[in-house]
Records
---
Amino acid sequence: MPSPLTVTFIQATILNAISNVLAQLIDQRNSKSPFHLNIIALIQFVTYGLIIVPPNFYWQRALEARYPGFPTRAEFTSAVRSFSLKAIFSPRAWLALFSGSSKEETLPSHDKEKEKHVRWAPRVQNSGLRNFIMKFFFDQTVASVTNLVLFVVLINLLKGEALPRVWELVIEDFRPIMSARLKYRPLVSILMYTVIPVDRRVVFGSACGVIWGIYLSLYAVV
């Protein structure tokens, strides 16, 4: 039986190939020229996809190992109910969230005599919600920047560009590609870290990213 990494390789490669072919169709249709498959561009994009599958696969596993589990419906409900502008700017609220604290707080002292047995409801244990937030945060920062730089570097090296020119392209292309990525990736991340099993996340990202792959293919001038 194939390993999860092998299955991810195969599925991600197929999806990357589809996105590149679709990008070529769009590009050549816009130029009003007869369709001709650019085999070299297809191989370059698929090769880039093959190179980035293992680091992304193990990155998702490492994230899940460090921040395991999914947020529960109760945690989401509690977070929504307790949401307030005051909480956003409260260091204690953020500390409680990221530490997973569930400490109980009693009523103020002047109310103790009147209501001896009344206590504030204990804070909900935020482990699942906290872990979701941490995974989401790292996916939008570390993973996004790393994948963007890898795309520009690898695709241009595969096209035969020299290293000095590749670095110039990284600086030149970073802002527009990141801007485009932020328009779709947050929604994908929310789904990935709430319902998708860890070994299916790279493939899920590739499936959701067929349109993103078309964008990258067009950006790479297929």
---
Amino acid sequence: MFRITFFGTGNGLSYPNRENTFFLVQHLPGGTSYLIDCGGSPWAKLVKTGVRPEELGALLITHAHPDHIYGLPALIQSLWLAGRTKPLPIYCPAGAKKTVVGLLELFDLPQKPNMFDIQITEQPLDGEVQAFTQGSLTVKTFPALHGIPTMGTAFYEATNKGQVKVIYSADTVYNPLLESLAKDATCLIHECNGADQAQGKHSSLHDVIRLKEQAQPHQVVLVHLTEGENYEQLMRQYELKQPYFMLAEDGMSLRVSL
């Protein structure tokens, strides 16, 4: 079972009611947490969610655009000030490590006294690749189509009832790889930068619905949203209803299980 808390659900611009998209995946009942990307005030949001410094199991950076990574120095400093000693694994797509290291070095964070070990791993972008396992949990990454090195994430939990599968598209245009990876997913979290049409290398609501028809996930949650778009109107036209197809909101939590 997973608990997913959306710390931000907006696009690269962000809005008064929507910060840039990043979210927390908690593996229950064990309580280990995994942060997907790192936007504004990450420590305060972790505390509000009840995550203690040692309970953050890993950080997964989908790509090195500012809106997905700018909170990293604040997160590392806050964990250090809060007394974390446990190493922190950071996973990023191949080619993004330079930016991750640069942000840490900019503020001399690795040189802080008693700084915990920061373990950076670049993930290949040539198909679905395992990042790590922990008990019944397996986390994998896969290439997204966004113009710079970008990776989506897949969380798999083996249970006596079957497999719980949470797939996150990351920023991407329509990605045919998701037709198989998201097949029968328990929850598909997908970016949706526009309703009728997305700007740049992003997905529209029409793209997400096309993927839904191919992959048949049990639930779809939209993130990376643009204010003022007619998402609700199009959802009504397609007869898409919550909780099976929903727009994420900042601070929203949901449980994902079989």
---
Amino acid sequence: MVDLLERTRPPEVTETPGVRRPVARWKWLRDNILLVAAAAVALLVLGWALFPSVFASGDPMTGVPAQKLQGPSLAHWFGTDNLGRDLYTRMVHGAGNSLTATLTAVAIALIAGTILGLVAGALGGVIDTVVMRVVDVLLSVPSLLLSLALITALGFGPRNVAIAVGVPLIANFARVLRSEVLRVRRTLFVEAARASGVRWYTVLVRHILPHSFQPVLALAAVELGMAVIAVSALSFLGFGAKPPTPEWGSLISEGRNYLATAWWLTTLPGLVIAAVVIAAQRLGRAVERNESA
């Protein structure tokens, strides 16, 4: 009877690993197409900033007057400006200036916010109250208005633009890290480290900070997009590098006088900035989702 049942049992369907793997990869790509696109945009813009001559070998400072205000074409992907300069070349070479100021601003906010949030959450008491009241003051002032006040006091230039953009962002990092420090310092392994006689600063650096820092990294990716907008806004207002040095915001400012006749001078740089901001936001959300999973 057992042999009869074995012969009549339908054969098991075996899955070939070589067939299943491409299907799984395609499903992952289909479900994460926006994330892949965001990563591609980030890598492309990073390549512009690091190796501008590879992506645009022309001179961003000089142009051909006879070719001024030409629309997008195969010869000039983003068209030309009022001096005959290739707009795509200026966008590529301006990526380094804009992203340097943006990354510097985020680094300033990340470092200062981490220190303030760590001290406030770990020490508590009067120090926590004072730090958080300073954070509340920073949050009560619109970031762009505070950046304008700082850049007016500091003076023009990319370095001052980075400082002016980075200072308003400190409050967000400080609040996030403080909340994480308050959560982590009540965990069992931190209490065990304290009970075993480990010095407080060792517990702070070795145990509390590493377990509180991941949400801050996700916030940094999100704030990177906002910093791009802020840096471009200050550059648009003329607080950035001096002309003819290309910056994304200044390129839009130069093209605003030709909106009726040369739409590409403002539209295409604006689309690039929008793509970078959306990509940064998408990557930041992905990091936050993976951290909470």
---
Amino acid sequence: MYCAHFAAKRCQSCHWLDKPYAEQLSLKQQHLTALLAPANDVELLSPVASAEQGFRYKAKMVVQGSADAPILGIINAQGEAVDLADCPLYPAAFATAFDLCKAFIRKAKLTPYDINARRGELKYLLLSQSLHSGRFMLRLVLRSKNCLASIEKHLPWLLAQWPELDVCSVNLQPKPAALLEGDEEIVLSVQHQLAEQLNQVPLYLTPQSFFQTQPVVAASLYQTAAQWATELQQEHTFSEIWDLFCGVGGFGLHVATPAQQLVGIEIASNAIASASRSAAELGLSKVNFQALDAGAFANAAAKAPDLLLVNPPRRGLGATLCQDIQRLAPRWLMYSSCNAASLAQDLAQLTDYKLLKVQLFDMLAHSSHYEVLTLLRRNH
């Protein structure tokens, strides 16, 4: 992939862009292999590759410039505001979407936030697109409610110009710290969820729910988890599945069959509502999604499921949750990780489990980041 911003050293976010893609993938596989070296007799599968451009369906843009001439992109290491509306990582439809967003900023007179002076209102613009429908969700991160009335006044104009925009919201982040978003979300559109569909499984994304940046590879990740679970069923029939850190339900809804009991745990209540809606549409009646802390749920549990699915944040499971997994002793553990280093630390603590299978999924080409799916079996 060629990027004029990278070539001119304006943006170095794709820090591996100077390496051929085949070399990138090889380096990631080598890194994963080295981290998992203590494990014996592991089936290390070939990595799942990414497209080299047009694969990011989620944009996080710093807003700079002025209300009359907004800049959507980053502030680089030199302190320069770099407009990335033409970034080749995004699908073609994002270019038009960014143009409409800039026109809306001008029309509503939304002053970009000045970090040094601590003046202005609009901090970030967060944009997501559904791979399935092509429709969009737009979030505007503001310092305060000072320009909320102007946004509400001009939003009908934006919706008329941009019929593919389903969800629009304002997030309030009043702190001067470098935080992407705050706790308060104000949904301004009639629709509150962006509909997605991967592998015929409906998923509903809400403004503050986590979802993968790369839906094509995410679909492969979920499908692989489903395939591994089907293979386990042929060897050892099981009836109950837990999906910890379940988000909007991607893993659990792909893996569970109508005959199995599925328990999904996620701290965000909006994500739980989305997962429950998807389960109902799929006709899964033996489902219980709960808005709880995954660690607290596992700590209070007395009985283990047959299969435990975990997809923790970058920090990993941690010592306490690993101890609870050891105590509960589910027969099978499927662990999806976005940080192989914390994964390796967790695996070292799960001493009652044998690592059977590992596969790398390249969610973020041109960077050192990747996702891993692992399958483990209890020793006794």
